[in-house]
UniProtKB/TrEMBL annotation:
This is Cilia- and flagella-associated protein 43. One of its GO terms (biological process) is sperm axoneme assembly. InterPro entries: WD40/YVTN_repeat-like_dom_sf, WD40_repeat_dom_sf. Keywords: Cell projection, Coiled coil, Cytoplasm, Cytoskeleton, Repeat, WD repeat. It comes from the Eukaryota. GO terms for cellular component: axoneme. Belongs to the CFAP43 family. It is found in: Cytoplasm, Cytoskeleton, Cilium axoneme. SUPFAM superfamilies: TolB, C-terminal domain (SSF50960), WD40 repeat-like (SSF50978).
Amino acid sequence: MATNIPFQVVAFSDRSLKPAIYIYTFPELSRKAKLKGHAQLDYTLLGFSYCGTYLASYSAVPEYELTLWNWEKKVILCSRLQPGVEVSQMTFNPMNWHQLCLSSASALTIWNIERSDKNYNLKSVKLPAEDGTCIDETDGMFSYTEPKDTVYGPALLVSSIAGLVGVEAETFKPKDDLHPLVHPTVHCWNPTNELYVGCEEGHILLINAESLLVAVLSRFAEVPKGKKLVNTMAFHKEGLFVAGNDGIVHSFTIKEIHYKVKDYFDVQEPVGNIIFSPDYTLLLIETIKGSVYTYTFGEEPKVKTILDAYSGNIQAIDFITPGNKYLTILGEICIWLLENGSHVSKLHLRTEVNDMACCPSSLSVALGTSAGYIQFLDVTDAELPQVVHNVFLTRSSIQHVHYDQKGQYLIIGTSDGYIFILNAKPSQSFKVLGFTEINGNIVQMSTVYISEKNLVEVMVLVNTSQSERSRLEIFSLPEAILTDPDNCCDERGRLKNDIIKRRRYEINHSLTSAVLDLHNEHLYGYCSHVPYICTYGIPEKVFFCLALGNIFLNRILFFQLHVKIVFNIHFL
């Protein structure tokens, strides 16, 4: 789809065999023209010239054809086939409709359209290497070997030495002459007939559309490998506005080949497109997931949310206690009001989060990431949540995050079967107290606080290799782990079994969920194969010790739990 503001028209194409291009007025939505070209399947790009009279279209498979239209007269002025060339962006020069730029991930091409509308030239820009250096490439047909004294014989063409003839001789290049080039991601024009080009490698190029000379302005600092930093550009009198995956709209003040960077604002999610209003007083920002924001220039600039879009599956949800708000994770942290469901705030973490839990004893939130970090948020001000602390636990992915009911312990489960115990108090900097190993894939964790004994019972549901059975690991967290953690762990930080009194149980059902009751006498389990919630009685703990010299090993008995159906669930 393409729009032209001076003419107040919009162009779009249908998706069908032999599609047509339709041009409608806006906002009346009355049809002005229907254009029928050579495309067999789809038009991938449309673009109006700034004067509004001309329309450029680009069709993909199978034609890969660039076409220039006079849409008012409904005629094709010229066209050019480019077999196999995928184009990602197409723009007219706003100061000269005779110049048209097409860019893809591997090339950038500038068209000069002659006044006769019959003759046109295609000029390809030579891109720099990935490190930003300019490449002085020789012509493949007339490249010679290294200069040498002619007494040893004539200087031969490289293609002649290779024994090539015809087209191969014209296009042949030795391996040493091949260099990886930058990959353009976006471009925009400035008022002096020059192009700014953003590259995947982090470079900003300045290209003169007349001479096709290329200058590398700079390289962004700390460019993440494999990520496109620049997704969109727009030119303004205050500088070149740039935005990308970091979610920050930057302004570059460019002087010759140097520039200064100013961060205007952060929308906290990857930006897909930015565009200025016709009077350049308003900047429209569109994010990749569909949110829309506006930034107003002036003495008191401000950001306004037009559309706040959410995408993806909810990964975790919990209540902020005490209070009347709750959090969700949909690729970002969102805080909602319980009373009416209104949205309070959000925070984009720019990392993959697998689970989340709110602390019952403080206004903090723990987040488990795929990179093995625990991130802690301060939600004292629900309208402005912020990351205040990070703890790196493991190189494995963190899959489960759980607090006990009193908010004393933070219990972490990893993808490789480790359970980490952390002090849940912010005043203790969320100190790691110890860990224990669970043999298998952790499905769920549940805790219950036993006030009479001042300890926390932890239950871990584990998948086994036997598809029709489940395993439960139950252990205790006494107060001594908080007060004297060094004496409760071995030299590696593993919690001692005689301290946590670890027990193991097997169940003849494949449970998908299980929780402890408030008295630690029963547990409730759900099996997806049958529509029942079952209760299991937990036998008393029995331990045997074998003395082997000075080494004592705890042998953990296996108990088969007896089942009783307490709920019958009917699925509609």
